[in-house]
Structure formats: C-alpha cells, structure tokens
C-alpha cells in the first residue's frame, strides 16, 4: 500500500532507497512501526488528559460565569481561559511529538495597558482563548470514543492473533475447553479445536492489520481539531501577512523612487547641465567665432538627442507607454526586441488584466530577460503568457547554463517578494547545466 509523502506508515526518516528495501508491504509492517505506536500512545494519553482539562475548564468557566454578577467571576473566568491556553500549548506539543502535526503557536496576548485589569480584558476579548476552551470541551467526548475504539481493536486483534499461544490456559486454569463464544444453562460454544483456533487467529490478524488505519482515521479528527482550534487565527494571520506585504510594497516603492532620482541625477540631469554650459559658451563665441559656435551648437544637439533617449528609457522603466496603449503583447514584444538574446514571445490573453497586475507582469519579464542577457549565456529564450482561471501565468525559459536560485539573495529573491506582496508566486526550476524555467503566477483582477 502506497504512502503519501510521510503520511503513511513507512519509516519517513529513511531515504527513498532505504524505504524500498523493505521486503514486507506497508500493510503488513504497519502494526509494528513507530508511527502506528505513536498514534496509539496519543489516543491512550488523550483520555486522562482530556478528562482532567475538561473538568477543570468546565468548573472554572461555570463558576466564573455564575459569579459574573460579582467581581470574583471576571478573574475566575479569565484564569480559566488562560489555563485553557496552557492546555492548548500542551496539546500542540503532544500532537507535534506523537502525530507529527506542525501547528504554529497563536499570537500572544497584547494588552493595551499594563496591569491586571488590562490583562483580564485581553484574555476575555481574545478569540484564541475561546477557541482553546471550545477545543477542551469538544475533545473530551471524542477522546473517550477514540480511546474505546482503539483499545478494543488493539486488544481484540492481538489477543486473537496470539490465541494459539495461550488457549491452553482455559482447560488448565479455567476448567473449560477454550474461549467461550456462547453459553447458557444447557450448553456452550467454545473455540477449542485446531480449525476454530486457526480461524480465531486469522480474524485477529485481519483486525490487527486494520487497527493502525482505524487509529489513523481517528487521529485525523484530532489533527483537524488541533489545526482548526489551537493554531493562529486565519484572520489574524492574514492581517500579519498583509502588514508584511504592505512593508514590502513600501520598501519597493521607496527603492524605485531612489533609482529614478539616481538615474535623473546621474543621467539626464547631468547631460542637461552640460548642455546649458555648452550653449552658454556657444552664445559667447557666436559673434567672434561663428564656426566654433556652430560646432558647439551641433555637439549640444547631439547631447539633446542622448538626453531625450535617456528620458525615454527612464519613462519606459517607470511605465512604458506601449504597455498602457496596446497591452502586454506589444509591450513584451518590444521588450524582447531589445534583449541581447533572441526571444520568442507568445501571449494568449482573452482580455487585459488590471493595470497594476499588467505592470507587475511586464517588469517581471523585463527583469528575467535582463538576467538572461547578463548571466545565463543562453542562445535563445521564450516568453509565454496566458490566463488560467483567475490567475495570470508567465513563463520565461532559456537554454543557458542554469543554476539560478531564488534563495541565494539575488534579484530573483526581490522579484519573489514583489510578487508575494500581491498574492503572486514565483517558481524557479534551474538545474546546473540548464535549461532554466521561471514561472510566475499573479492574480488576474481584471
């Protein structure tokens, strides 16, 4: 029976080659492997832990709620909810160790002010506290059920599987022929002959083989409860993510402004200053040396052309007019024409996405083509753009040397951050020796 990336009962700590050396299939190994035993221990521990936490939480919350008419009820209720948060930390640790469930801790309490009153208010207003209380209440009946089912399956399976080894105890110490299946005043049915003993052992084998999967199904509910109730709130996590994305957007905008200022200062501005000086000198020489003045004006005319080209390039770097007027197809074709490597562009879009997304897509392809020109050593490249459901897909490939890595702190890392800020994804596949395939996914937002 196949396993799914560490979720089955194979030894997930072994490399693939070692895992394939097992001669027994997974279904036969499951009852004695570490994962099955850890899950069974988790179920066994769940019963006493859940009973203790349930009783404590219900008593504290009930007494606190009953005494809300007095001042005593509020701190009791806050203490009960705080204890539930502590129980949640224990459950997350237990699930991580025994079930392999990785759940991040919820966001800590953040009282607006210092003091006991502020702390109580933060506890009572926190949705995390109430979700931990809900887990404590819901987990107890489930723990009782899963404990009963698991213990019955484990004890019956192993008892019947090993019945041929201990059936002799009945005639020696029990004064009966074997294990009794049915009995009344007149007669009884016993498992006492070789055929019945073998049949009992076979049934025990089947139950023993099925038990790990039954326990796994039961602990799947525990995994869902831990993920859903003991982890960080999805809303709070989304807020934190948006705050981080906002920071990335602000930093990116600031970096773009610095780049534009630097390009203006070092490029067009410097040329215009030099042009003004040359024209001033030409004006002074116009009367005494017209030919020299004409040469200086001619040189200034060339400087004007260069400055205009630099301004056009700068404007194109901010937002190209062809992108605004004609869309991605024409803009990317113009971008490919300026690349030092032959680029084949194919754009298949039924309509235009949002202007902001269109701009990000353009600059993503622009930066990737620059990387190809500078670093890849490629002979050709391809740019494909299409729409998949509500996502804009970009794929840039080249036949260069490969080895690009988004985690190496290169320009690809900054590009990935920019895409992430708008819920985009950047995937780089670049084995050593090539080829390199970079796939970007952006929301459509048309």
Model description:
The protein has 446 residues and is an alpha+beta fold. It starts with 15 loop residues before the first helix and ends with a strand. The protein is elongated and about 140 Å long. It has three domains: 35-230, no CATH class; 239-318, Single alpha-helices involved in coiled-coils or other helix-helix interfaces (Up-down Bundle), CATH 1.20.5; 325-443, Histidine kinase-like ATPase, C-terminal domain (Heat Shock Protein 90), CATH 3.30.565. It has helices at 16-19, 26-29, 34-66, 73-98, 116-125, 127-161, 163-166, 169-174, 194-230, 234-285, 290-318, 321-326, 328-337, 355-376, 411-421, and strands spanning 179-183, 188-191, 343-348, 381-388, 391-398, 425-429, 436-443. Residues 1-20 have low confidence and may be disordered. Helix 14 (355-376) links the parallel strand 3 (343-348) and strand 4. The protein is built from 15 helices and seven strands. A five-stranded mixed sheet has the order 3-4-5-7-6. A two-stranded antiparallel sheet has the order 1-2. The longest helix is centred in the middle third of the chain and has 52 residues, at 234-285.
